[in-house]
Structures are given as C-alpha cells and as structure tokens.
Amino acid sequence: MRTLLYGGTLVNEGTTRRASIIIEDGTIAAILPAGQHPDASFDETVDASGCFVLPGIIDDHVHFREPGLTEKADIDTESRAAAAGGVTSYFDMPNCVPQTTTLEALAEKEQLAAAKSHVNYAFFFGATNDNADLFPQLPADRIPGIKLFMGSSTGNMLVDRDASLRRIFKAVAPLPLMAHCEDTDIINRNMAEAKGAWGDDPPVTLHPMIRSEEACLASTRKAVELAKEYGTRLHVAHLSTAEELELFTVGCDSVATNNITAEACVGHLVFTMLDHERLGARIKVNPAIKSPVDQFMLRQALSDGRITTVATDHAPHLLSQKEGGCARAASGMPMVQFALVAMLELVDAGVLTMARLVELMAHNPARLFGVCQRGFLRPGYRADLVVVRPHSPWMVTADAVLSKCGWSPVEGHTYQWRVERTLCNGHTVYADGHVDSAYVGEPLLFNHDHDPHV
Predict the structure, then answer these.
(1) Dihedral Cα 71, 76, 82, 86, nearest 10 deg
(2) DSSP string across 297-317
(3) 3-class SS of residue 333
(4) Does 230 have pLDDT greater than 70?
C-alpha cells in the first residue's frame, strides 16, 4: 500500500514547512519538500491543503476501564474516541478489575487490545505494597513503565508504606516510574473537617480544598526526594499546583538532562476551580483542578520546560456516577477526543507555540518512555499522523461524543480547530467524522535504554 499525503504544513522537531509525505506499508518512506513531485503511482492520495500535519498524539495517561469496568468505557469505544481526537497511541493505567498488578492481568489486557483497539496501545504495570519482586519479570519492551499511586484515587491502589515505597523506587530501574502524588492523610483530615461543617457529602466546590495544594506538594516532594536518593526515572503525573512546579527544572530539554519530569493534564490547563460552579462534578478529578493562579503557572511551565508531557487522564464515568459532591461523586472525566483541539486553542491564545505542543504531546512522550519508531515524522518511522484544519469552527454536542459514557465537560463549546484525518500505521482510521471500526492498531514497543536526545 502506497499513500501520498500532500499540500499540508508539517510541524515536526521544531520546524514548520510545506511538504509531502510518502507512506509505504505503514511506514514513512520519504518526506519531500514543497514543489518536489514524486515520480510514482499511489494507491491513495490525501490532499492536506490548508491543514497542518502533526505526528500522531501519544497520550501517556488514559483509563479505558477494561476489563471489569466496562459499563463506563471499554477499549473499543475509547480507542474510537482517541482516533477522532488525533491520538494514535495511548498508555492505559492499571486500576481496572482485576488490577494490572500481575503478569496474568497484563497479558489479559494485551489480548483484549489486540482484538479491539483501533489505535496503538500499551499498558502500565501497577505497583502495590508487595509486588516489586515482579518488576524484573516484566516484558520491558512491551510496557511504558510502572504506575504508582502515592495517593488514594479511583481503584484503591494506594501505596503508602515507607518500606514499600523505597523498595519500588529502588527496584523499578530501568523502567520509568509514573506517580500519582497526593498525601492521603492530609486529604482524610480535610475531608473529616469538611464533613463536620457540611455533612456527609460536602459541596463539590470544596473538592480543591479537600484534595488540597498541601496534599499535592507533600506527596510530590516525597516522590522527588526518593527519586533523587535512588536515581529513579520519575515522571510525576498531572501536576496541579504552582508550588509543585518549583520542584522541577526550568529548561526545555528536560527529557535529555533530567531523570525527574512532570506531566500536565488538559483539564488542569483549560478549567479552574471556579468552573465547579458551572459544571459541578463533571470536572471533579483527582488531583483537583485548582485556582486560576495555579492554571496560569501550569500554562507558563508548558514552555519553560518544567512540564515535559501533556496528557488527558481520560477517565470516563456514567453521568449517574458523577452526581453528588466531594464524597459521593466519582472523580474523572473523558477528554481523549478533545485534548488536541483544546491545546490548539491555547496555541491560538499565545500560551505556547504549535511546535511546543507537538513536543509535549508527541516527541517528548516518545523520548521519555522510549517508544520505538513513533512520535516523529521521520523516514523509517511508523506513519502515525494527524491532519488538523484551522478556522473550522464546530460545536461539541452530546451526539458527537464517542466515549461510551456519552458526555463531555466541553459540551456546548465551539472549537476553531478540527481533526480532519488520523492515520495510524499509514491507515486512515478516522476521516470525515467516521472511525474505521474494522481497523486494529499495533502494540507499542519500547527501548528503555535509549538515548533521549534521539
């Protein structure tokens, strides 16, 4: 199969230029500068005139809920939503049922994805208080790393014993360790105080005070200290506070120069705690969305290097499970379909450049986790790419939401960018509003001994 994609503006490795891409059997065969016409015939031609062509987004943080929680979501539905959002690869989290904390559970998820995922896939292995002895047995070339919950969140995988934490930070190498950092003792204290004042289910507007800045900072500081002590490759998930940012190094080449990096999630970049008044528990997430000042500082850190990757923490729940306040409403929201267009709005607002967006959502996830042959538009790499069109307004309606849960916190919002086409391994998996439900993506492969400069 030979495909020619022409007429578009490529954004890749810090450059923006008109070019054509030749794809052969799922791999980028050549990139030709504008004006150079290939002397060959093609099975498919794609006219990307007026569009930008980006590497396919690698979402390093999703919860697709399968197995065990499929009333909320499953690999089929959520990978459809990913394809519609320009996401060609995802790393799924281990807090499903059964939890991905054994070799057997990991193999089961891989088998499910091999039959049902419409884009490329990989699965984090979950750390517990007593499974670090399994780390050397893991298939390191098939997993992005180990996920550690240092705060209690969805799925009850809390690891809070000091001896267990030290064992994990010491044993995880050469794999990266992604940590959810919130101090559970501080959260429990805050919840008890809130219940004393407001009853058994305090209003959701108090969620940022219960899962507070203090709780985030204390846990993230502890993770950073342990990583420095043991030389661990630590990636802190979903930073939510300005104070936590002070623990990370300014400098846009942090993947290459630091073992300790941080992720921001789209929800914390586009919403603030004030939006709870309008959206209620629909934007209730852990860690909580914080103040406008925290949002401003997170946005600043996108460009100064303290944030290394941007992900979604895509976490669907049924709307019935989002009813209530701080104690009763489930935490998590679906965003994988809308993350790229939301970030492109921030480009339009001058928060970051499009080249930096590509760095945060494609290049750096590939570098940080050692994803093989993906994350860049390069000859010899797999042809994962997304075509986006500017100045193409559309409103998010409930019937446009492809996640199984059937809702989104951005319903009613009008985006100015549109995902026009998503190619996964050279195959058009999404175009003209439709997902190719017959297509199945590929398992991601990893090289954890790679040079992050490459």
Answers:
(1) -160
(2) HHHHHHHHSS--EEE--B---
(3) strand
(4) yes
| pLDDT (mean) for 362-384 | 98
Q: Going by C-beta distance under 8 Å and a sequence separation of 6 or more, which residues neighbour residue 116?
A: 66, 74, 75, 76, 79, 440
Whether 182 has a pLDDT exceeding 60, the answer reads yes
User: How much of the chain, in percent, has pLDDT values that exceed 90?
Assistant: 92
Beta strands in 198-308 (DSSP E): 234-236, 260-265
Average pLDDT over residues 261-268: 98
Q: What is the CA radius of gyration of the chain?
A: 21
Q: Per-residue pLDDT for 406 more than 90?
A: yes
For 333-370, give one letter per residue: b (16+ CB within 10 A) or e: bbbbbbbbbbbbbbbeeebbebbbbbbbbbbbbbbbbb
Residues 128-144 have pLDDT tens digits of 999 999 999 999 999 99
Is there a contact between 142 and 443 (Cβ–Cβ < 8 Å)?
A: yes
Whole-number Å distance between alpha carbons of 54 and 373:
15
DSSP category for residue 12: E
Which residue is associated with the tokens 């919002």?
413
- CA–CA separation, 377 vs 12, rounded Å? 6
Contact 35, 75 (CB under 8 A): no
253 is an active site residue: no
The pTM score is 0.97
CB 159, CB 129: distance < 8 Å: yes
Q: Indicate which residue of 92, 313, 348, 451 is catalytic.
A: 313
Lowest mean pLDDT among 156-160, 324-328, 366-370, 398-402: 156-160
What pLDDT does 429 receive?
A: 98
For the cut 90, the answer to whether the pLDDT of residue 318 exceeds it is: yes
**Under a CB-based contact definition with an 8 Å cutoff, are residues 90 and 336 in contact?**
yes
Residue type, 386: V
Mean pLDDT for 431-435 is 95
The answer to whether the CB of 25 falls within 8 A of the CB of 334 is no
Please name which of 11, 13, 31, 14 lies closest in space to residue 22, comparing C-alpha atoms. 31
Q: Are residues 83 and 116 in contact, defined by beta-carbon separation less than 8 angstroms?
A: no
Nearest to 294 by CA among 217, 358, 185, 236: 217
Q: How far apart are the first and last CA of the chain?
A: 28
Q: Where are the beta strands (DSSP E) in 340-405?
A: 385-389, 394-395
Q: What is the DSSP track for 276-299?
A: HHHHGGGG--SSPP--HHHHHHHH
Would you state the structure tokens that stand for residue 398, as one six-digit string? 């409930």
